[in-house]
Design brief:
Layout: H1 2-23, H2 53-57, H3 72-101, H4 104-134, H5 139-159, H6 163-186, H7 193-209, H8 211-234, H9 247-271
Helix pairs in contact: 1-3, 1-4, 3-4, 4-5, 4-9, 5-6, 5-7, 6-7, 7-8, 7-9, 8-9
This protein binds zinc ion.
Zinc ion (ZN) binds next to loops.
Length: about 280
């Protein structure tokens, strides 16, 4: 039930992300003008704007001129729907524990924490696509995300009286930002400043979850990036040093750290005979 609600909400957000990914790199407004067919300019009717469903009903063609509509649009809506459902299911035990505690503050905190992660999921999908398209991570998305993500986590920290969590988040943001900044300075060209600013945002969330999430989330980006580079090299899709954007790997690594970081860390300690 929760997963279905989250998926429906996610598909609507995914529809908006299509607009963001298309317009933000071009410096255009994401609210006006309303969406139109790029081929004939006819406005998209509201009943043709239902995520995934409309594309299937129209068989991927504009209702007015019949020009093909890229399968990318429903794909982004579907991926966002599945991502939101996964985040909701991941947060469900924490939400249920808050409801069982019958503390209004804890329930509100748990819901706002869910909102903070859903927001990060939406930002992650938009940034990954824009980085793949344009090799950029626009300030117009990354910088407001610090305010929204940091603001939501601050309110959660106040509601849960979790000052340590907030402090960890700030240390995580500073540590990840500085780590990437040093990498960028030591090896110019390897890291763009966009990557440095994204690292701070991811460090904020990872630090919030815990130290193990922070370590695994940051290094996970390099492992994902390394595997991706090897696969693409083997498939001869890129040449050595032929710019693969690093943002998507950073984002994937961070999500591994957020969701599985503590479990991976404990598993590693057990494996190494340290715990
Ligand atoms: Zn058209």
């Amino acid at each position: 039930m929760v997963a279905v609600l989250a998926a429906v909400f996610g598909s609507l957000i995914g529809s908006f992300l299509n607009v963001v990914v298309f317009r933000v790199p071009a410096g255009r407004s994401v609210v006006s003008p309303p969406s139109a067919c790029p081929a004939c300019g006819a406005g998209i009717r509201s009943f043709d704007n239902i995520p995934v469903v409309s594309w299937l009903v129209l068989r991927g063609r504009c209702r007015d001129c019949g020009a093909p509509i890229s399968a990318r649009y429903p794909s982004v809506e579907l991926v966002t729907a599945l991502g939101f459902a996964a985040v909701a299911l991941w947060r469900l035990p924490s939400l249920e524990a808050a409801i069982a505690s019958e503390s209004a503050a804890r329930i509100a905190g748990s819901l706002l924490e869910l909102a903070a992660y859903l927001f990060l999921a939406a930002v992650s999908i938009a940034l990954a696509l824009i980085d793949l398209d344009t090799h950029r991570l626009p300030d117009r998305i990354v910088l407001p995300a610090y305010v929204v993500g940091g603001g939501l986590l601050t309110v959660v920290a106040v509601l849960n009286a979790d000052g340590w969590g907030l402090l960890r988040a700030l240390i995580g943001a500073a540590a990840a930002f500085l780590f990437y900044l040093v990498l960028g300075l030591v090896k110019p060209g390897a890291m763009g400043f966009g990557d440095v600013k994204l690292a701070g945002l991811l460090g904020l969330y990872l630090g919030w979850v815990g130290w193990s999430a922070l370590v695994i989330g940051i290094f996970g980006g390099f492992i994902v990036g390394g595997i991706l580079a090897l696969v693409l090299l083997a498939a001869r899709r890129v040449s050595v040093g032929g710019g693969i954007p690093f943002g998507p790997s950073m984002l994937a690594g961070a999500w591994i750290g957020l969701v599985a970081g503590p479990a991976i860390w404990n598993g590693y300690l057990a494996f190494a005979g340290l715990a």
